[in-house]
Structures are given as structure tokens and as C-alpha cells.
Amino acid sequence: MLARFLSPDPYVQMPDYTQNFNRYSYCLNNPFKYTDPSGESIIAIIGGAIIGGIGYTASVAFSDYGLCAWSSNDCVKSMAVGAISGAVTCGIGSVFGTTGSIVQGTFDVGKELARAGAHALANGFISVATGNDFLNGFVAGGMGSFGGSLFQGMAGGIMQAHPILEAIGTVGSSAVSGGVGAELTGGDFWRGAATGAIVGVFNHLQGEIIEKRIEQKRLDLARSATKRWDVVKYKHCNEFVQDMMIENEMNPTDKALLAREWGDIKQVKSGWRPLQAGETPDRGDIAAAKYRFDSGATGHMGIMLTSERICYAGGSSPYVSVSNINTIKFENTNKPNWVYYRYIGN
Questions:
Q1: Domains of the chain in sequence order
Q2: 66-100 pLDDT per residue, tens
Q3: Is the distance from CB of 198 to CB of 228 less than 8 angstroms?
């Protein structure tokens, strides 16, 4: 057991802990105690514990006896609850993904209610397991989740140019909603606020961070392709696309990429999803089409640079080329049946 990643972890979890600057170390160099497939759940556990401790301390500070009633045992218990909640919240957030925009018409009420329900159940059971009230945890987790979702849905699209304000608003909305939920069910506002804040940070904000990383990978794929334009020779289109995917750590398979398989929307491609009707291809998407050419080739594929321009190899030029995808014609058809794919993360 070497406790090492095979590739460097892009995220420094704890800047004040020197071991985290070894980008190949795994789980604080202690794989027997922790597991962290994504490289990010450790920070959710630690962050959740910190928020849980803060919530407990605030609760005591605003009580009748003030900080004189503060107990280290109770604080540790609250931190343990926060750590568990942080880990679970992180997992739920990865399942449901990012919140849509009400302004842009992409806010899915059903999905957000399901997300809130998952957080409600998780925090309710965590509350019971740690000797607290199920209803307090249930309502605080559910309202905290939906409060953060509503804020992101209403203001997220408008405040994209101000990420710090968006983050403060999201966490604040989740915290207040969680606190109100706990108060309404006879619990403590500050502990409920801590539950809501954990949901806001490790569900909504982490989802946004992950989505931005994935978007950056798509942009990097398009940039890598552009650098080869009229410079590098490729004999086959699939070799070019696969090289670009490997360079940007987006390759979905260990075997050779085949254009005809990517031209078949029924075949699942790990880490990539087909665009649905009404979705417009964008920079970093893959375009593929099945077609039997006279040369024996069975398909064509390339990397989109814009909604219409495609970068590809093969064809009449030995070099990587760029064309308007709408002007590309195959031998016996004027309009190839293109299928588009978007990277969603491995």
C-alpha cells in the first residue's frame, strides 16, 4: 500500500498542512483510515466538522447561560455530526449535480425537491444516530437544501460575474432556511443553520466548482485541437480526437476510438453524454457521424470549436483542418447525420 495517486491531485485540500502539497499523496497519507475516490471528500468531512463546531458554539453563546455552558464533549459531538453530514452531503451533491436557472428556464423543481428530500432523510437519520431528534434534522436538511437551490435558481445566473457574492448568498440562504426549519420543529436555530450551511457549501457550491472544472476541460480540449490546426498530420480522424482526449485526461476507453461507434447514439460513452434535441453544440463537444466511405472508413468525427466550426483530421488534407460543419459533405450525401457529445466528467 503506497498511498499514492497515479496522477496528481489538482486540489490542495488543506493549505496549512504540508503533506497536501505532495500532489500524489492519498488521503493525508493514511489510506487505511480514509478513502477518497474523487480527492475531495476529506475537505467535506473536515469542513463539516468545523461548521458543526461553529453552530454548536453559536447556539451556546445565544443561550441563557452564554459561553459558560459550553462543553467540549458536546462540541466534539456536534463536530462529528457535521463531519458525517459533510461527507453525505458531498455524495448527494455529486448525484444531483448543479442547480439550473429560473431566469434561463433550466430550473427543475422536481429534481430540487428530490435533492431536498435526500438531504432531509440523510440529516434526519444522522440526527437520530447521534442521539438527537429526527424531525429537527429532517426539516433543517430539507429546507436548507431547497433554500440554497432557490437562491441559485433565482440569482445564480444573474450573479455569475460575482462568484463571491453568489457563494455568500447561497450559503446564507441555506443556513437561514435550515435554522428556520429547526426552529419551527422545536429545535435550535443555530444548529439548524449549521446543517443548512453544510448543505450549501458541500452540495451547491461544490457542485458549481466541479461543473466549472468540467467546463474548463472542454475549453482545454478545444484549445489543444486548435493548436494542431495546419501544423500536425494525422491519417485518421479518430486518432486525432483520441490523442486530444488523452492529452486532457478525457479519454473514455483504453481501446482505440472508433468514429462509427461515436456516430451511434445508442452506444454509451463513459464520461460523455449525447446532446438532446434543442441543445446546441459548443466548444469542446465531439461531433461524430456513421458513414461507409469508398476508402473503407466507417465514420467521421472531430472536435467542435464553436457551435458550427469543427476541427478534424483525415479527408483531402494531411493536416488537421477546420471547417463549418454545415458545409461538410460525404461522398453520396449532402447532409451527414451528426451526433454530438458533451463531456460530463469521468
A1: 40-216 (no CATH), 228-343 (3.90.1720.10)
A2: 888 899 999 998 898 889 888 888 888 877 877 87
A3: no
